[in-house]
Design goal:
It is a single chain. By secondary structure, the chain is of the alpha+beta class. It has 7 helices and 8 strands. The strands form 3 sheets. A 4-stranded antiparallel beta sheet has the order 5-6-7-8, with helices on one face. A two-stranded antiparallel sheet has the order 1-2. It has a two-stranded antiparallel ribbon with strand order 3-4. A hairpin with a 2-residue loop joins strand 1 and strand 2. The longest helix is centred in the first third of the chain and has 50 residues. It binds calcium ion (2 copies). One calcium ion binds next to loops. The site of one calcium ion has 7 residues, from loops.
Length: about 325
């Protein structure tokens, strides 16, 4: 009898302790995740010191979406060898063969958040227009921010039904900008219509263009490529097509199969349509993490902050936009 009581007490103690141990482990992972982001922020500043602006998506070829901004950062992250192996004369330099495999297949630990449960490689599970041959892509959990941008809409999803309609045209997207998509034409070269500090291709901000202040403007977002658009996000850290993200989607909006509100078995592509679908760009191409309650962000001054997923949405948009002139209070 006494033995049973002792066993029962031990069982209760273990049950009490286990969540605390798991929470402590996640806290450690979140700190490492934030440290990686901090290193990227430092690399961004060092890049800016050398080139006078943030690194370009598409390697400075307006209209093309080849290399992501992370490729430009490689020499500033002690990855010079990898960078030196890239053949920029290729139409798609991100497919340069280095050490026997494509650049997009190289896992760079600095680009990975340890809380990511999906592993470091993704293989597209269905053919996309841009990707006829399936191959493994190394994941990056950090993306440059397009800010409060028009993110397009390839499946029916009215973001205003989720975030409200305080923006000029009431569709819930692009609260402080001029209503255009983040690629092509003027956006790709002058950035006038880009809300944040990176474009989908061909343009990136310099400090002078961040008129709201570098400490008040988001530069990098934590992301989960697996929960993003499978024809874009699944193509890996080195591919410019994969790395366009903004503050338009609410933080941690459920877009992974098996997540709260998203039908489909965990580990599979969501079977849902509408705002939870893989192709719903205004909801999937945003900040997302597996940390409880929010995600990590690197501001343009290099400061890393954890923003709560229930942050006031208009405030979040103001933090994403570099030139809205909205004053930022406590948050
Ligand atoms: Ca709008
Ligand atoms: Ca702002």
């Amino acid at each position: 009898m006494e033995l049973l009581v002792v066993i029962a007490i031990i069982g209760i103690l273990v049950a009490l302790l286990l969540p605390a141990v798991q929470a402590a482990r996640e806290a450690a992972r979140r700190m490492q995740c934030a440290n990686n982001l901090k290193q990227l922020g430092i690399a961004l500043h060092n890049y800016h010191s050398t080139f006078g602006q943030f690194p370009l998506q598409a390697g400075g070829h307006p209209g093309y979406e080849d290399c992501s901004y992370l490729v430009g950062l490689l020499p500033f992250l002690e990855e010079q060898t990898l960078y030196d192996g890239i053949d920029f004369d290729l139409v798609e330099p991100e497919h340069s063969i280095i050490g026997g495999k494509r650049l997009v297949e190289h896992v760079v630990p600095a680009f990975l958040c340890p809380s990511e449960s999906q592993g470091s490689l993704l293989v597209a599970k269905e053919n996309c227009d841009e990707q006829p041959d399936a191959y493994a892509s190394a994941v990056g959990n950090y993306a440059g921010s397009l800010g409060s941008q028009q993110m397009g809409r390839s499946v029916p999803c009215n973001l205003a039904t989720i975030v409200g309609g305080g923006d000029p045209d009431g569709d819930g997207q692009n609260w402080y900008g001029y209503g255009t998509l983040p690629w092509g034409g003027d956006q790709a070269t002058s950035g006038k219509k880009i809300s944040g500090v990176f474009a989908r291709s061909g343009w990136s901000a310099n400090f002078h263009e961040i008129t709201d202040g570098t400490s008040k403007t988001i530069g990098l977002l934590e992301i989960r490529p697996y929960c993003g658009h499978r024809c874009h996000s699944w193509q890996g850290w080195a591919d410019g097509r994969a790395m366009w993200y903004g503050t338009t989607p609410p933080i941690n909006f459920p877009t992974c199969a098996g997540e709260n509100g998203v039908p489909g078995p965990a580990g599979e592509i969501p079977s849902s349509e509408g705002c939870h679908a893989s192709h719903s760009t205004p909801t999937v191409q945003g900040a997302k993490s597996q940390h409880p309650g929010g995600a990590n962000f690197c501001f343009c001054d290099g400061a890393v902050k954890f923003l709560a997923e229930n942050i006031d949405y208009p405030l979040y948009q103001a933090l994403g936009d570099r030139r809205d002139e909205v004053s930022i209070g406590e948050y």
